[in-house]
């Protein structure tokens, strides 16, 4: 068997890979190898080969040998966070280097002080090697000394030495939805296993080895790209035949070769690759790599019989009081999203029906724990049976309360304290909101739940905190044992259990480059957002409360395009008075330091009920007393809110936005009221007034509306719900409720055309404004302002700065003629790949309609 000798690239102390202070390396998720705790600061090539660099990163270099073996040198742990500071690359991507040639220099002192560790793993990340031998460990080493020997597969060697004569060449179109990413690349490698041929795949002017998943992935091949496959060797035609089963022949070829027999052949292959992969529903976007940390808890044992009604009933009251105190403390310290959820918990804790049910059991001499559990479960079953997805998801809140009260009855704190490993990917039947909020989130990389829906509270919290989450995976997920390596690709709805080295090394690269990309985006986020052809686009943020402002400003928000004031009105027994509202709005305006603040008047009703308002019971609340309709039904409430807004200083910073407008009279009524209030307050002017376009009616009447308001703001969440007749809270329709549907886009187009004629500004504040795939289309349709989820603003600004508005106009015209949302997505994704230098990564795309 051939061997590759690797020399020490750095002087220092050699240690075994399992002693690296990072589980990803220590558990060999990236690959086999060794590590050096450096005393020197110049990294040399451990062998000859070509340099492969991660985009934007300076702390890691891969040397690809001519046999296709990849050797990754990763200086330090978590050094990606230094964004290249302290590192100087001495080579460029693609350079051919000799053994011991200097590759990069780093400031040892700086890195030691600023990174988690300077320990430098040297690992083999690709396929093609059979094992390591003579690995040096637990002693000091100098540059150039032998570090280890790599045994190379016979096949890899054979592929390198087969005859030079070209045996077979074919062109194919890549059919995989996300291009040649980890899974399809692994499929190609697996399909070619055992076939004696050297197979080269070329695209975009670069070539890769088809026997190496890493090599294939690094070509950046996307769906629809044409690739040239060249196979040499005694079984070259067998290799081509195998690839024909996986890839689509390019149009110049006959496409009639897929036979039933070939389908039979490819089926077992596909099965093998999915055996260690589970699928679920996107709860919170992103990619995460880590180890399983199961929060599954054994059912608590509960004594059925108690020690008398009075003793048990007061035990239950005391336990609820402890839980109440705990929730109140969390509410006092948490953000707006968290506050809303916990306040709902508080209400459930004291819910009279729940307590009555428990009391019936207590009176039958049951224990406090038995009675509480019985009452909660009975109610949870009823919630689930209602057939309403949103209410069914609240059953999780009830079970959360059950667990908290039972723990206190057992003499424990309300919430279990979990010692999490670093980079924990939480596995739970259904993670409870309180459990999530009490975890050490700095250690949580991802969340996987057997149950739960995409609009569950846990999914909403995870999104706000930037933690990828997959829900509704099914009970198979609970079989994963603690410590199992996992790769969570939430954007694609996939959980890879015990992923292959190739998948992991590609994930390491993807995560590193996303982190580097995010940091660079954030550093550039403060500046104005001007397209490549000089058109200024305002990028604002959506806010729910004061404590979200500072973070939004650091993410480059140029103002707030949507303050959802309903959060101030929810989870309480009476509405906030004028003074309280003024205080809240004033604080937010002041924190925005002069940036515009668009305050939306109360948007309740539908899926946001308010108990203290006299709301009629409605069979179909989404089509009932919602938004402005409710405010006009309760004019005193609207008057108080408008007075508070008009009193914010400096006058003019606040603009007023009306939700759920359907006709001109809505706007006229509010303007008349505003004039009255302005006179009362001695104001000579009125603030800018805007109408939300979130019903088909308002889009169709945008010409009339735009003549009487200062701005329009498109609420794509509701606009798609009402245009497509799909409930925005419906878990099963969630994947089809896509605001990029051409019908929705046509309504947006109609709005922008009408607004332009009336010289009225148009903004988008629904989920579409946070979706990178949608941005060029929106700009092409004439949108000049977006209001997005704060954390995504830096990335959106980068995207916009690279756009040419004329090209966007052409793209938008095509999108309007597409037949469905999926076609629009594919069109825009392909367009971005073809026209942008840095097309957006999948991370955070498609936030859906609920944000
Ligand atoms: C919308 O409908 O797009 C919107 C922004 O309003 P909300 O999501 O608060 O209903
Ligand atoms: Mg809305």
Named at the architecture level, the CATH assignment of the largest domain is Alpha-Beta Barrel
Q: Rg, please? A: 30 Å
What is the residue-mean pLDDT, rounded to a whole number?
A: 84
Largest sheet: 8 strands, antiparallel
Helix content: 25-40%
| CATH fold topology of the largest domain | TIM Barrel
Secondary structural class: alpha/beta
The CATH homologous superfamily of the largest domain: Phosphoenolpyruvate-binding domains
Our measurement of the CA-to-CA distance between the termini, rounded to an integer number of angstroms, reads 57 Å
Overall tally of domains: 5
* Secondary structure tally, helices: 29
Describe the structure.
- This protein has 5 domains: 3-155, Glucose Permease (Domain IIA) (Distorted Sandwich); 158-249, Histidine-containing Protein, Chain: A (2-Layer Sandwich); 267-295 and 418-515, Glucose Oxidase, domain 1; 309-409, PtsI, HPr-binding domain (Enzyme I, Chain A, domain 2); 524-839, Phosphoenolpyruvate-binding domains (TIM Barrel), CATH 3.20.20.60.
- The protein is built from 29 helices and 35 strands.
- An 8-stranded antiparallel sheet has the order 9-5-6-7-11-3-2-13, with no helix packed on it.
- A hairpin with a 4-residue loop joins strand 26 and strand 27.
- The chain is globular, with a radius of gyration of 30 Å.
- Residues 158-166, 252-275 and 841-851 have low confidence and may be disordered.
- The structure holds phosphoenolpyruvate (PEP) and magnesium ion (MG).
- Magnesium ion binds at residues 659, 694, 715, 717-718.
- Residues 659, 694, 715, 717-718 line the site of magnesium ion.
């Amino acid at each position: 068997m051939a061997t590759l000798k690797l020399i020490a690239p750095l002087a220092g102390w050699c240690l075994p890979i399992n002693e690296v202070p990072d589980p990803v390396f220590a558990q060999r998720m990236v690959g086999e190898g060794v590590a050096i705790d450096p005393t020197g600061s110049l990294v040399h090539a451990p062998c000859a080969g070509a340099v492969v660099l991660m985009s934007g990163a300076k702390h890691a270099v891969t040397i690809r040998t001519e046999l296709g073996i990849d050797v990754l040198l990763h200086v330090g742990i978590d050094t990606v966070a230094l964004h290249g500071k302290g590192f100087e690359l001495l080579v460029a991507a693609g350079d051919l280097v000799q053994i011991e040639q200097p590759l990069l220099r780093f400031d040892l002192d700086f890195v030691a002080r600023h990174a988690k560790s300077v320990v430098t793993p040297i690992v083999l990340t690709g396929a093609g090697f059979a094992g390591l031998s003579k690995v040096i460990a637990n002693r000091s080493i100098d540059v150039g000394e032998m570090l280890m020997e790599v045994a190379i597969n016979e096949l890899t060697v054979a592929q390198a030495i087969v005859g030079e004569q070209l045996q077979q060449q074919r062109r194919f179109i890549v059919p995989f939805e996300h291009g040649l990413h980890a899974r399809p690349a692994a499929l190609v490698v697996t399909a070619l296993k055992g076939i004696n041929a050297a197979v080269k795949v070329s695209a975009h002017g670069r070539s890769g080895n088809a026997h190496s998943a890493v090599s294939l992935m690094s070509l950046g091949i996307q769906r629809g790209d044409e690739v040239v496959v060249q196979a040499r060797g005694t079984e070259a035609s067998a290799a081509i035949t195998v690839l024909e089963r996986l890839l689509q022949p390019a149009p110049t070829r006959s496409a009639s070769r897929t036979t039933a027999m070939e389908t039979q052949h490819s089926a077992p292959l596909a099965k093998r690759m999915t055996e260690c992969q589970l699928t679920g529903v996107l709860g919170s976007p992103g990619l995460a790599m880590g180890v399983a940390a199961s929060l599954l808890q054994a059912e608590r044992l509960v004594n059925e019989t108690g020690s008398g009604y009075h003793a048990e009933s007061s035990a239950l009251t005391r336990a609820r009081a402890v839980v109440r105190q705990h929730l109140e403390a969390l509410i006092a310290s948490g953000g707006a999203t968290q506050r809303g959820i916990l306040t709902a918990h508080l209400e459930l804790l004291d819910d009279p029906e729940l307590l009555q049910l428990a009391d019936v059991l207590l009176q039958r001499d049951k224990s406090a724990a038995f009675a509480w559990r019985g009452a909660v479960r009975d109610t949870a079953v009823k919630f689930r049976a209602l057939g309403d997805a949103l209410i069914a998801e609240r059953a999780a809140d009830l079970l959360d309360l059950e667990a908290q009260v039972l723990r206190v009855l057992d003499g424990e704190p309300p919430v279990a304290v979990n010692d999490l490993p670093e980079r924990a990917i939480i596995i739970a039947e259904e993670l409870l909101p309180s459990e999530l909020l009490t975890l050490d989130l700095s250690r949580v990389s991802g969340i996987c739940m057997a149950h739960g829906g995409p609009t569950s509270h846990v999914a909403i919290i995870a999104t706000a905190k930037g933690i990828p989450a997959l829900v509704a995976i099914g009970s198979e997920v609970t079989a994963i044992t603690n410590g199992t390596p996992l790769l969570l690709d939430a954007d694609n709805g996939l959980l890879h259990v015990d992923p292959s080295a190739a998948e992991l090394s590609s994930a390491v690269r993807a995560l590193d480059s996303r982190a580097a990309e995010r940091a660079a985006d954030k550093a550039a986020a403060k500046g104005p957002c001007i397209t490549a052809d000089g058109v200024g686009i305002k990028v604002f943020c959506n806010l729910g409360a004061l404590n979200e402002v500072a973070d939004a400003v650091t993410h480059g928000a140029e103002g707030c395009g949507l303050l959802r004031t309903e959060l101030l009105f929810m989870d309480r027994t009476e509405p906030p008075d004028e003074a309280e509202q003024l205080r809240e709005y004033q604080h937010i305006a002041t924190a925005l330091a002069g940036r515009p603040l668009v305050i939306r008047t109360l948007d309740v009703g539908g899926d946001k009920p308010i108990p203290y308002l006299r709301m009629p019971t409605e069979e179909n609340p989404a089509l009932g007393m919602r938004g402005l309709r409710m405010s006009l039904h309760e004019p005193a409430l609207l008057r108080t809110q408008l007075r508070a807004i008009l009193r914010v200083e400096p006058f003019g910073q606040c603009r007023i936005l009306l939700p759920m407008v359907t006709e001109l009279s809505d706007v006229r009524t509010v303007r008349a009221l505003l004039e009255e209030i302005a006179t009362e307050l001695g104001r000579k002017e009125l603030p800018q007034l805007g109408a939300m376009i979130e019903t088909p009616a308002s889009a169709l009447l945008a010409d009339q509306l735009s003549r009487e308001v200062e701005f329009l703001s498109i609420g794509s969440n509701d606009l798609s719900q009402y245009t497509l007749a799909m409930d925005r809270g419906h878990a099963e329709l969630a994947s089809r409720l896509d605001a990029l549907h051409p019908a929705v886009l046509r309504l947006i187009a109609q709005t922008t055309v009408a607004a332009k004629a009336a010289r009225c500004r148009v903004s988008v504040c629904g989920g579409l404004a946070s979706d990178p795939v949608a941005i060029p289309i929106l700009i092409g349709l004439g949108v000049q302002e977006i209001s997005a989820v704060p954390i995504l603003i830096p990335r959106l600004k980068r995207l916009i700065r690279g756009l040419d508005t004329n090209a966007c106009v052409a793209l938008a015209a095509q999108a309007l003629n597409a037949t469905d949302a999926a076609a629009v997505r594919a069109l825009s994704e392909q367009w971005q790949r073809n026209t942008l230098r840095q097309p957006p990564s999948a991370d955070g795309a498609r936030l859906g309609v609920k944000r």
